[in-house]
Amino acid sequence: MTGRRALGRQFGWLWAAFVVSSYGTGLRFGAFPMIAVLVLHSGPTQVAALAAAGRAVGALVAVPLGPWVEFRRKRPVMVAMDLIRCAALLSVPAAFALGRLSFAQLLVVSVAVATADIAFRAASGAYLKGLVPPEDLLVANGRFESTTWTATVVGPPLGGAAIGMFGPMTTVVADAVSYLLSALGLRAIGGTEPRPARAGAARLRAGELLEGWRYVLAHATLRPLFFNAIVVNGLIMATEPLLAVLLLGPLGFAPWQYGLAFAAPCVGGLIGSRLAPRLVARFGQHKVMLSAGVLRACWPVGLAFVRPGVPGLVLIMVVQFGLVTCCGLFNPVLATYRLDHTPSDRVVRTLTAWSVSSSAAIAAMTAVWGLLAALTGPRTAIAVAGVLLLATPLLLPRREHAPLDTREQAASVT
């Protein structure tokens, strides 16, 4: 299990499509809030609403997509989601050019992109399980994870430079084009994908909307991992706007320092994702997942002690590097474990339930921590989140309760 393992031409096209769309998203990072402030002259409340509403409403709209996607060919769904994201994003510069851009349109586009993101991730997880042999899933997920962190390092600084030179619409167009290129890459995979067999009624039943949650909550190991991931991601993401307020406001960090403080440590994500296959081969999947899950909870509380100047900048970078390295190690192992322990006919619904829950939790916690910061100050709110994160390892499973079903593993290959 090494990072150099060849996974075939079809996986190469899938990975290439992921690379181009990831870099496009990295370039567009922060573009919508910037458009809201600079073009539409929106206030802080509207900008916060834009960030939260896209996730929350997108998660709600995505709920029925899980059962719908489950029994359809996954690659055409992925192509369709790419084209939807491309069209939605292109509507923004088009409306701007016509002088018709509004805050309501930004909200609608945010919801459309968030919904398509959830559907795409669920379909791609199921497609990957059928494309790659089970023994290579961790290597494949590690490559996706390393791509995500590399795009996070490179994309936002380049996007910021492009916005500075050509305006905020530039990166929106670039991201839209990246989704078009991703769709073309997915089409280039070729081959035939069998239509999934559907047992029972041909029409979607209301009970199927909850099947993903039922499966996760009934699984002895996935259940604690599900709650741990939701709480950890929610607390980490809820503090991001507060850190921006604290660093760019009272502490007086320049925008380039703020960008450097969070972009440079993302190299740790690349390191963690590349180490994942080697560490799992040596210590086992569960032990690596448990260790990385415990370690990633220990870092964020340090952000409450940041001070102005170079020492504060160094502290942020050290904390972020430790956090991102642990996340880069934990995420691909979790993604692989989740695919290994989910039957093929439930993968999309399970991944959709996971993504919907995560998006909803992030939106809710962002709103709650914004209110907490208004009452106590951003530093106190960040400290509270850090202390709560220290307790999240209690949600991790202490032992492996559910051995891998080798029959399901064999079925996923055939």
Question: What attributes characterize this protein structure?
Answer:
414 residues; mainly alpha; disordered C terminus
Number of DSSP helical runs: 17
- Mean pLDDT across the residues is 85
- What structural class should be given to the helix and strand makeup? mainly alpha
Strand content: under 5%
- First and last CA, distance: 21 Å
Count of individual beta strands:
0
Radius of gyration: 21 Å
Report the major sheet: none
Shape: globular
Reading the helices and strands in chain order gives HHHHHHHHHHHHHHHHH
Q: pLDDT below 50 for ≥5 consecutive residues: which ranges? A: 405-414
What proportion of the residues is helical, as a percent range?
Answer: over 70%
Provide an overview of this structure.
The chain is mainly alpha-helical. It has helices spanning 9-27, 31-38, 44-62, 65-70, 74-97, 103-131, 137-166, 169-187, 211-218, 222-248, 255-263, 267-283, 285-296, 309-340, 347-376, 378-390, 406-413. The longest helix is centred in the C-terminal third of the chain and has 32 residues, at 309-340. The model is unreliable at 405-414 (pLDDT under 50).
Give the helix/strand layout.
Elements: H1 9-27, H2 31-38, H3 44-62, H4 65-70, H5 74-97, H6 103-131, H7 137-166, H8 169-187, H9 211-218, H10 222-248, H11 255-263, H12 267-283, H13 285-296, H14 309-340, H15 347-376, H16 378-390, H17 406-413
Helix pairs in contact: 1-7, 1-8, 2-3, 3-6, 3-15, 5-6, 5-8, 6-15, 7-11, 7-12, 7-14, 9-15, 10-15, 10-16, 11-14, 12-13, 12-14, 13-14, 15-16
